[in-house]
Structures are given as C-alpha cells and as structure tokens.
Design goal:
This protein has eight helices and seven strands; from the N terminus they run αααββαβαβαβαββα. The longest helix is centred in the first third of the chain and has 28 residues. The protein has a seven-stranded mixed sheet with strand order 1-7-6-2-5-3-4, sandwiched between helices. The radius of gyration is 18 Å and the shape is globular. Helix content is 48%, strand content 15%. The protein has one domain.
Length: 246
C-alpha cells in the first residue's frame, strides 16, 4: 500500500470509527425504551446496529465480511476465536439471540452495559480466578435471564492477535459440563484487518466460520483438546487465505 493510499485509509478508518460510535448512540438510545420492556426490542437493536457496522465497514474502508457454515438457530454455546471487536459484531449480526460472557466492567458502560443486561449477558470479573468460573455458571442458570439463545464465549478469555498462541481456559469447559449443551466452535481471521488496538482498518474479507458441533457428554479434557484442534487450524487457514503469514 503506497503512502498516499495508506494515509487515506487512516482517514477513512477514523471517520468509520467515529460514525460507528455515533450510530451506537443513536440506535442504542433511540430503541432503549422498547428494549427496556422487551428482550425482542433489545435483540432488534443489536441486530440493526451490528448489521449497520458490517455494511459501513464495506462501504467506508473496503472491509467486507462473510459467514461460512451453518448459523446456529437453537440454544447452544458458541465457542469462538476472538481477535477484535469486529468478530463480536459479526456474530451478533447473524445469531438470532446472541448473548455473551463479558467483562464485569462493561456492565456499567453506557448503551453496551444496558443492552448486555437486557439480552442476558453474564458479567464476569476475570481477576477472581476460579470464582469467575462459578460466576459464569451461576449467571447462566439465573431464572431471570432470557431463555434460549446462543451463548458466545471466547475460550482464550480475551482478544488474541493473529499468530499469537494462547491457552484455552477452563471456563468454556465448565459451562459445557454445567449446561449440557452442544458447543459450536467458530474460527475467524478478522484480526488481520481489524486489529485489537489502533485506528487502521484494512480492506479485505473478514470471515467467521461455524465449524462442526461438539455434542454434550464428551469428557472435559477431551472436549478442550477437541475444541482447540478444531478452532486453531481453521482460523490459521482463514488467516492464510487473507494473506497473513506467521
């Protein structure tokens, strides 16, 4: 990418990010009265916003996005590779009732925290170690939470840059055992184009790929191995397709 083109891409990326947060305020505040009294309204707002960001990313910075594999429609756990904020938005744009295990600090964030509570997200203090796992399980079993939906959890616990190796944490296994639900692994390459930090958004094709399900009942150790051996090679393949080399 030449210097003038790179400079233009930075400007477009900044404008894209700016409008993204303006849109968050408009959609989030405008639809909150409905979302406050109806989870249907909350999910509608989430879908509208996330689809707008995907559209505007293509339009403004040349970043297209694509879903591969069968999108889960029933109550499952989606265990996804997490590289940037964009994979959250892509998943939330297509899953009928997405909800997350999210950082406890986000519970108090304007708009994001409001909607997180309304759609049934579970806030977890990651610094609590083993108690954080108990928070996850207890939160998901809360009778006041919206029923059904697709619980999205990031097995590595945080955003991981392309090419970086990070262990899979036990939280996903604890939820798998406690809830007795099918797990749908998901791979991605979004970090190649939308990094964890910084302004630049690169043009290209960001992909989320839903992979073959892991049914309930697999022993925990085997489950964690199978999950990693499913997600990591698939993500590496998507990143290689995007031009990333370790």
């Amino acid at each position: 990418m030449t210097f003038p083109r790179l400079a233009l891409q930075y400007v477009l990326s900044f404008l894209f990010i700016l409008q993204m947060y303006v849109a968050l305020a408009i959609v989030g505040i405008g639809l909150f009265p409905w979302a406050l009294f109806s989870s249907r309204g909350a999910f509608f707002a989430v879908h509208i916003y996330c689809r707008w960001v995907r559209f505007s990313a293509h339009w403004m910075v040349g970043l297209r996005s694509e879903i591969r594999g069968e999108v889960p429609q029933t109550e499952v756990i989606v265990a996804s590779k997490h590289q940037s904020f964009f994979d959250i938005l892509i998943l939330s744009s297509v899953l009928p009732k997405p909800k997350f295990v999210m950082k406890a600090s986000l519970k108090y964030a304007p708009v994001i925290g409001w909607y997180g509570r309304q759609i049934g997200c579970v806030a977890v203090d990651r610094s609590k170690g083993g108690r954080a796992v108990n928070q996850m399980v207890t939160g998901m079993q809360n009778p006041k939470s919206p029923k059904g939906g697709q619980l999205i959890i990031y097995p590595q616990g945080t955003r991981v840059a392309p090419g970086v190796d990070k262990v899979y944490k036990v939280g996903v296994g604890a939820l798998y055992e406690a809830l007795g639900q099918t797990v749908i692994p998901a791979a991605t390459n979004v970090g190649v184009f939308w990094p964890r930090h910084g302004v630049l958004r690169k043009p290209g094709l960001a992909v989320i790929e839903f992979l073959p399900p892991i049914p309930p009942g697999v022993p925990l150790t085997d489950f964690l191995v199978q999950l990693r051996e499913t997600i990591e090679p698939a993500s590496d393949k998507l990143m290689e397709e995007a031009g990333f080399k370790k």
